């Protein structure tokens, strides 16, 4: 985990902490992304909450720095940090997908149930036919 100053030192084409802060703020606004934060002591009774950047987040900011010139800042942030879909939208898509798959499985299940019911009915009729022929054979033997 790294702080602002350490992150600026690691990211090439990034010169100031204020630029990183601006990029971080835009990433949080454009993409529902949350950075981990920590409290650092700034005085005897005072603390300041600052983000701690992971190696993955540093790599994403490096990608922003590399693609900013050709894409522009906002598209570069979107490309690095994601599509901009919220977690709720992703969950809705997953729910829709699972609902469709469940409906398909239920249709398949109904088809199998129908097939097995027809097979059971055919087997029952065969059993009835065999029992009838067996009864008629016993009657013939008895009648002789």
SSE layout:
Layout: H1 4-10, H2 17-30, E1 37-41, E2 47-51, H3 55-71, H4 73-81, H5 87-143
Helix pairs in contact: 2-4, 3-4
Task: Name its key features.
144 residues; two-stranded antiparallel sheet; 5 helices; 2 strands; rod-shaped
The gist of it:
The chain is mainly alpha-helical and 144 residues long. The chain folds into 2 domains: 4-84, no CATH class; 85-144.
General description of the model:
The chain is mainly alpha-helical. The chain folds into two domains: 4-84, no CATH class; 85-144. It is 72% helix and 7% strand. The protein has helices at residues 4-10, 17-30, 55-71, 73-81, 87-143, and strands spanning 37-41, 47-51. The chain has a two-stranded antiparallel ribbon. A hairpin with a 5-residue loop joins strand 1 and strand 2.
Mean pLDDT: 87
From the N-terminal CA to the C-terminal CA, the straight-line distance is 99 Å
Proportion in β-strands: 5-15%
- What is the number of helices? 5
Order of SSEs, N→C? HHEEHHH
What is the makeup of the main sheet? 2 strands, antiparallel
When the domains are counted, the total is: 2
- Poorly predicted regions are none
Gross morphology:
rod-shaped
Rg result: 35 Å
Q: Which structural category do the helix and sheet elements fall into? A: mainly alpha
Q: Into which percent range does the helicity of residues fall?
A: over 70%
């Amino acid at each position: 985990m790294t702080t602002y100053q350490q992150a600026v030192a690691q990211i090439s084409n990034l010169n100031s902490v204020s630029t990183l802060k601006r990029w971080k703020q835009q990433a949080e606004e454009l993409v529902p992304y949350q950075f981990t934060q920590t409290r650092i002591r700034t005085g005897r009774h005072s603390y300041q909450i600052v983000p701690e950047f992971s190696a993955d987040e540093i790599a994403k900011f490096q990608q922003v720095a590399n693609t900013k010139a050709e894409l522009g800042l906002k598209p570069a942030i979107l490309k690095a940090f994601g599509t901009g879909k919220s977690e709720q939208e992703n969950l809705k898509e997953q729910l829709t997908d699972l609902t469709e798959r469940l409906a398909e499985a239920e249709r398949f299940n109904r088809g199998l149930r129908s097939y097995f019911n027809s097979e059971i009915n055919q087997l029952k009729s065969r059993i009835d036919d065999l029992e009838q022929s067996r009864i008629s054979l016993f009657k013939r033997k008895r009648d002789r």
